[in-house]
């Protein structure tokens, strides 16, 4: 079996989930998020683009409803013993198969939690699910149960993230020699992803962000490449990935001359990141972290050039995004606690002067100050 953790690790995770199920007085939960299935059982697939569900009963028993294409995938990558298939056919409605499965599991009339907030359950399938369950039992939204359990990392998970962070550093090391006048974004991107693969890493849950010139002000991947000019700016956001665990980094690298505006924005970004580090400690909240970022950039007269979030939790994630909850935004009451892996990014985009500056890295929270997981310093990189 292609398991990346000891069986005792999965048993401990199941026990944590059982406590939550009992506290919420649920008889079962229906998990649709691939992250939840991977965390709980090791099940590793991109087949969640189709209808599938992991049923977890209050007694800890689990059964997976999926398609034939994922039968062997589930057997090989997970601890799931019971697997039921729904059949692809014209007019198929797997929500009916799920309802029948729940009936076979003696859950008629039971209180059932559903993990609605996930890309693994489209609105179309969610509506079909509700149609089948509305008279079957008492349905409750259980979207946040497993995602919050995943927020707190075990020692084994931390080891995965630390490996991912090393791969992220390797990717930057591979990119830097190529960032120069005439440097090709395509070759830079290939070198970064290649370094991660060569180091034993995986595909990221979303595309790396790469953009130069005016495109350096974008915060998302887009198709199309260009070559760098003599005096240019290149924004990179990427993640090292190991066994689906992510450690993200973000930098704007300059070629040639450093403009006055670039230096101003970098000084502000660095000051904001250091301010965030001081607050990323137990006793503070995710909202407090955002406020530290916002206050610093306001002091540099950059409020209109910043974003309304400055980072988020990281862990084992699947397409379409490596971003995990909770996020650093205004008013978020989630407390900072030890053993979280958090990505803080300072993103300043001055559209008036077409100047970009970013700075970000992943941290492991502790009982006191957070531990940066990158070996790279926070100096401005000029090639």
Automatic annotation (TrEMBL):
Protein name per the record: Xaa-Pro dipeptidase
CDD domains: APP_MetAP
SUPFAM superfamilies, per database record: Creatinase/aminopeptidase, Creatinase/prolidase N-terminal domain
Sequence ranges assigned to domain Creatinase N-terminal in this UniProt record: 13-151
InterPro entries attached to this UniProt entry: Creatin/AminoP/Spt16_N, Creatinase/aminopeptidase-like, Creatinase_N, Pept_M24, Peptidase_M24B
Stretches assigned to the Peptidase M24 domain: 160-366
Taxonomic superkingdom: Bacteria
């Amino acid at each position: 079996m292609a398991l990346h953790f000891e069986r005792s690790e999965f048993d401990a995770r199941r026990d944590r989930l059982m406590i939550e199920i009992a506290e919420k007085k649920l008889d079962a939960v229906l998990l649709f998020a691939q992250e939840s299935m991977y965390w709980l059982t090791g099940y590793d697939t991109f087949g969640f683009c189709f209808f599938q569900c992991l049923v977890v009963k209050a007694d800890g028993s689990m059964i997976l409803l999926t398609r034939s294409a994922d039968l062997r995938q589930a057997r090989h990558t997970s601890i799931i013993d019971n697997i039921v298939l729904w059949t692809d056919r014209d007019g198929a409605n797997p929500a009916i198969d799920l309802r029948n499965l729940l009936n076979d599991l003696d859950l008629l009339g039971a209180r059932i939690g559903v993990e609605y907030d996930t890309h693994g359950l489209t609105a179309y399938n969610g509506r079909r699910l509700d149609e089948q369950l509305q008279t079957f039992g008492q349905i409750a939204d259980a979207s946040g149960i497993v995602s919050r359990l995943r927020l707190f990392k075990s020692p084994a998970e931390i080891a995965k993230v630390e490996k991912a962070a090393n791969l992220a550093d390797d990717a930057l090391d591979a990119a830097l020699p190529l960032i120069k006048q005439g440097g090709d974004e395509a070759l830079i991107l290939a070198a970064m992803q290649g370094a991660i693969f060569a180091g034993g890493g995986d595909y990221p849950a979303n595309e790396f962000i790469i953009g130069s010139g005016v495109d350096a002000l974008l915060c998302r991947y887009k198709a199309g490449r260009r070559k760098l000019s003599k005096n240019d700016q290149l924004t990179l956001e990427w993640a090292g990935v190991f066994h689906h665990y992510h450690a993200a980094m973000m930098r704007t690298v300059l070629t040639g001359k450093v403009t006055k505006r670039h230096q101003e924005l970098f000084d502000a970004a660095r000051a904001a990141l250091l301010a965030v580090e001081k607050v990323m400690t137990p006793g503070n909240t995710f909202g407090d972290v955002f406020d530290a970022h916002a206050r610093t950039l306001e002091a540099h007269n950059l409020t209109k050039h910043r974003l309304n979030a400055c980072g988020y939790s990281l862990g084992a994630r699947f397409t379409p995004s490596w971003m995990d909850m909770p996020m650093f935004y205004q008013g978020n009451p989630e407390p900072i606690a030890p053993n979280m892996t958090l990505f803080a990014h300072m993103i300043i985009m001055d559209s008036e002067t077409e100047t970009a500056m970013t700075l970000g890295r992943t941290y492991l929270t502790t009982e006191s100050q957070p531990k940066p997981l990158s070996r790279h310093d926070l100096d401005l990189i000029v090639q």
